[in-house]
Amino acid sequence: MRHATQEYFSLHPTIALWVVVGLLGYAVLPWYGMDDNIFTLRWLFDGYPFDDDVAPALFLNLQGQKLWLAPIGLLLLGSFLLWGRRKADPAFGPILIALGAFGFGYLLLQGFAIGLKGWNWEVATALFGDLDDRQFGMGWGALLVAGAFLFLFTIGCAARGAVGGDEFVAGSIGFVIAVVGIFIFMPILQMLASAFVTQDGGYSAGTFASKLFSNRLWGISCLLGGPRCGAAWNSLLLAILVGVVTTALGLVFALVVTRTGFRYGALLRALTVLPIITPPFVIGLAIILLFGLSGAITQGLDAALGIAPSRWIYGFPGLFIAQALAFTPIAFLVMIGVVEGISPSMEEAAQTLRASRWQTFRTVTLPLMRPGLANAFLLGFIESMADFGNPLVLGGNFEVLSTEIFFAIVGAQYDQAQAAILALVLLGFTLGAFYAQRFWLGRKSYTTVSGKGDAGVHPHLPVPLRNTVYTIAALWTLFTLLIYVTIFYGSFVKLWGVDFSLTFDHYVKSFAVGWNDFGIHWRGAAWSSFWTTMQIALISAPLTAAIGLLTAYLLVRQSFAGKEAFEFGTMLSFAIPGTVIGVSYVVAFNVPPIELTGTGIILVLSFIFRNMPVGVRAGVASMSQIDRSLDESSLTLGANSWQTFRRIILPLLKPAILAALVYSFVRAMTAISAIIFLVSAQYDMSTSYIVGRVENNEYGIAIAYSAVLIFVMLAVIGIMQLLVGSRRIGRRGIEGDLSQSRTNVSQATVRPQTAISGGG
Amino acid sequence: MAEIKSNAASVEFRNVTKVYGKSTVPAVKGVSLFIQAGKLVTLLGPSGCGKTTTLRMIAGLELATRGQILIGGSDVTRLPATDRDVSMVFQSYALFPHMTVRENVEYGLKFSSFNKRDAGGKAQAGLDLVGLSGFGDRLPSQLSGGQQQRVAVARALVLEPQVLLFDEPLSNLDAKLRRHVREEIREIQQKLALTVVYVTHDQEEALAVSDRIIVMNNAVIVQDGTPRDLYDQPANAFVADFIGEANILPCEVVAVEGDVANVQLGPVSLRIPARTHAPGSARLAVRPNRVQVTSPESENTLLGTLDKVTYVGSHLELVVRTPLGSLFAVTPDVDLAVEAGQAVGLGFAGRGPVLLSE
């Protein structure tokens, strides 16, 4: 019966569920984090439930320890105030909201207030006196309790009528806000705070200011003949130039595909996959192999023309070439959408008004592309700013922000405040660009795209222009091919520049497999990091896709107060460079209440929140194509919003799910900037292993490993396509003439709005 | 064999207002209405008049900002769509493209208290009812527009809702099919005695299918009555003009005797129903087919000159210039020997002109 109003002579079932979860966390599971993985269940035999390390909060309290946790149990029991109350009861919502908010708040408060050395805050010591106790990072028990309080709170909000009284939607919003708050905003804020910390542990605004405005960052002595300019200026100059060049090249490719009658456009589109599956520093490596001191081209020129080899490529020129090559496909992806989006009828109208082809291009086509051009520029700008891999291998003495941050943390100086300040400057640049892109251009760019009903054809470019774009595109393509051939070939060369004989040594050394008594023995040096990477990437990909699509659903399908801020918050990590995330995670999660450094979890988390915007974008793009009446019809047929999400939206979103899965997987495999701060001996990742080999000048192994990664990613993309793509809406088009048929889903090919390369 | 029954219930709005988001202009303003169980009532009006919002408030897809909504006598104002016993046929049909026809029809049954077999039987009965018995295993994309439309109807019907809602269900069909489908909908509605609320902006469709029509304009109800009431007795110029075509003319109410008014329309004297009018100036509406074109010498006629004569096959359309303004008239007498420029007299039968309240 759909119109039943049940009397609850017990707890409302959803509330009962969360109370049980909460009590489980409080009274059964270990409250604090453990060294072991909880699923090994070894803790059950380690003195559970009385030993301090594995005891649940309840048992700690009963033994008179950590008494500040006791109120949490009382608050959970407070839920029984709701016994017998129905949802329509006016006290129902307020009680839940009070319990949930107070419980969640108290949990965080005690976590931050009491740390490894007792009170963390002097205020607390002054108020309550010294505390002869301490606590470690929160574990599963605390996690469950936090979840219980959070969802009790959202159920309360729903009962008060928030988001139409929908518990699922209210819970989802609460969940996304909580995790984004904890894993994006909190680390950034803590990093901000740590920027004020001096070397001796005090806080000083003066030191902060002197570091922020130091010459190392903002010096302009190179203009006056000095040796070097500040890292901030270097980054800015490089980013602007890379933005301009990639935009121009992207436009050239977009024109080739759409306006010249070029027949192999599909091949060019395939090129856009390259930067996605290529670890960011690989292009830099190849450039060293070609133009470095012992590079093939350098030595060839030396032999043929007697030009002495030099180190000119290290620094600005090399970085510029590498980034221009790496990020052009991204600009292409943006530009092709814009160029195709321009309604052909506008150009046809111009032609019927007696404009020549060239005049049409200049007066109609180009102005309409302006927002797209700016968009592509800003993306190139952000990518270049955030790029870490190329500066690391190619930078030389040309200091840029992203690598300076790294050296401030791992170098001899170990200056966390300095790293935080550099990260803030970098964040300022990228957020500025992000802000400009969203609020200045993001909306404009859609206005040039008119709806359906355009049956026209794009006019071709004037012939001289066409030949120019062909030439440029051909040169770029050849150069890119050369890069990839170099990588492939280089992985078989014994010692590049010295001994060009071919060998399998690098592969054998990294990926040898043998057999011993226990079965397969992964003998190669690279296997350990390879399997870790696969494992972490495979765990984080579905989680990223799930949270991204859930967020997209909330953004596209639900309206609630503060939605714009919510959208901004969830898309923000898009503009946060990986190095900044890395530094902020190190700062935030090194100490209780959330102590994660050195674990695999922190790697997974950093991938989820770095890549979440990709999932959101893919979800938003394809969800906007699913007619809202499908949801509404499901709702009027008696399904609730969770059932609608699961049965209607998810099945129709398969292409978006695939895209989100592939992107987050691949980005997890290629990322370097964030994780280089977060890897540990136990959890080393492929990319950081490769960078390590480069630093030891073991180019052969680095290149061989990179080539393997590229092939693995191609294979994984293929497999995922098979798994998800095989259950399409299907059987459509078999029945001959279906011109009459209509559905509410436009079948868009999976083309994420803006692919983000591994630049971060 | 399972069959589809009716749980028809009434719908009542008590002073309902809907304001979207931060907008200051209400989409629906102080609407009160009562729809009897088992009747087909049409909400009719130009786009943006609030009729779809009204329908979506019955469905629970929008919640009223103020006022009260009752279905079958119980208050559902705060209930969301999921919990209301109402189903809806959408303009776009909203068939789930990844499910077969049968899965579509069974979809809602899954969330009701039906077991799998009953649901199957119910779904089959629904498909039989709309004449798509053999189509259960097809995908929606393999059906024609008219068939998809019928699947959408079956999907809504099998839940045996208290109220069935139609949101412009025919607007995606071609003209011939439209007539056919609307007759089918009316037939099923009468056979099962369903309460149906139907939204359209097509006045002909509304006249053809409805027991009652509620005309809306600018977020309020302007008139509520049977199709004949609305056509013959429009309350005001908007209704007169929106439903069918009408000539709106200024006139003078000379005297009122009981229910009958003596009205002076230019040189023409008329005795027509007074409809609460007092003596004074007023406006009246005349349907084009109620204007009689005669010779200028006839008595009690309005003199005019023929401006335009258009032959459209089944009838003649005439535009006549008169001292009261241009009049539009139609006559089924296609052999009438008239031509542009000719002087004519216009006569008005006693039942033709209707006084309008302003």
Tell me about this structure.
The complex is a heterodimer of chains A (760) and B (358). Chain A folds into 3 domains: 13-160, no CATH class; 230-490, MetI-like (MetI-like fold, Orthogonal Bundle); 527-725, Orthogonal Bundle (MetI-like fold). Chain A is built from 32 helices and 6 strands. Chain A is an all-alpha fold. A two-stranded antiparallel sheet of chain A has the order 1-2. In chain B, the strands form 4 sheets. A 6-stranded mixed sheet of chain B has the order 6-7-8-3-9-10, with helices on both faces. Chain B has a 5-stranded antiparallel sheet with strand order 13-12-11-14-20. The radius of gyration of chain B is 24 Å and the shape is elongated. The chains are: A mainly alpha (760), B alpha+beta (358). The interface between A and B is large, with 38 and 45 residues.
Helix-strand pattern of chain B? EEEHEEEHHHEHEHEEHHEEEEEEEEEE
Radius of gyration of chain A: 29 Å
| Shape descriptor of chain B | elongated
CATH class of the largest domain in chain A: Mainly Alpha
Low-pLDDT ranges of chain B = none
**Strand order in the sheet with the most strands of chain A:** 1-2
What's the architecture of the largest domain in chain B in CATH terms? 3-Layer(aba) Sandwich
**Main β sheet profile of chain A:** 2 strands, antiparallel
- The figure for the number of domains of chain B is 2
Number of helices of chain B: 8
Strand order, main sheet of chain B: write it out. 6-7-8-3-9-10
Roughly what is the average pLDDT of chain A, rounded to an integer?
80
- Mean pLDDT of chain B comes to 89
Class derived from helix and strand content of chain A: mainly alpha
Reported by name, the CATH topology of the largest domain in chain B is Rossmann fold
Overall tally of structural domains of chain A: 3
CATH class of the largest domain in chain B: Alpha Beta
Could you name the CATH homologous superfamily of the largest domain in chain A?
A: MetI-like
